[in-house]
Every structure is written in C-alpha cells, then in structure tokens.
Amino acid sequence: MLTSVDPDLIRALGDPLRLKIVTLLARETLCTTHLIEEIGAKQTNLSNHLKVLREAGLVETEPCGRFTYYRLKPEVLAGLSEQFAALAASARGAAGNKRACP
C-alpha cells in the first residue's frame, strides 16, 4: 500500500531539479563539480538539493580527497517502484468497484 512510502521520498522526487540530479546519478557517480557543470545551478542551491536527496535516502556520499561523490541508491528507487506497482494493481482490481451515493 502506498501509505508505507516515506513522504519525504515522494517530496524529494517531486522537484524538477532533484529529479534531474537523480537522472544524472542513475547514469554515473558524480561529484559536486560535475553536477554543477551538468545542471548549471549555483553550488549552494545544488548542495541544498543534495541534502534533501540524502535525507530522503536516495543518494549516498563517497569522500574522495577534497571532493565528495554522490551515488544513487537503486534499491530505494526499486522499493518505490514496487509500491507504485502494487498501487496500480490495486486500482486495476478496483476499477469496477463503485460506492453508491447515499
């Protein structure tokens, strides 16, 4: 059931810039410098978005010298996908159900 999905995860993916970051990280592990080049956002803005994604559990960090690399956690997205698939299956099964008005 969808109610078990962390609302912070849904909110994190609901922002277009964060969704773009997730899309980029789905292709490769990137450092902040790479993400700034790809997205064109200011570092402070990007850092705030990355913080939201980390707190939602979507990305993890890997320190590498003076850089921090960001990696997507595919198991989190897979779990979310399963939740939406279950919701879609429930909706298909309930398509013929209609509650009568009083």
Lay out the secondary structure:
Blueprint: H1 7-13, H2 16-27, E1 30-31, H3 32-39, H4 43-55, E2 59-64, E3 67-72, H5 74-93
Antiparallel strand pairs: 1-3, 2-3
In a few lines, what is going on in this structure?
By secondary structure, the chain is an alpha+beta fold. 59% of the residues lie in helices and 14% in strands.
What does this structure look like?
The structure is a single chain. With 102 residues, the protein is an alpha+beta fold. It contains five helices and three strands; from the N terminus they run ααβααββα. Strands 1-3-2 form a three-stranded antiparallel beta sheet. A hairpin with a 2-residue loop joins strand 2 (59-64) and strand 3 (67-72). Helix 1 (7-13) runs antiparallel to helix 4 (43-55). The model has no long low-confidence stretch (mean pLDDT 90).
What brief labels describe this structure?
alpha+beta; elongated; 102 residues; three-stranded antiparallel sheet; 3 strands; single chain
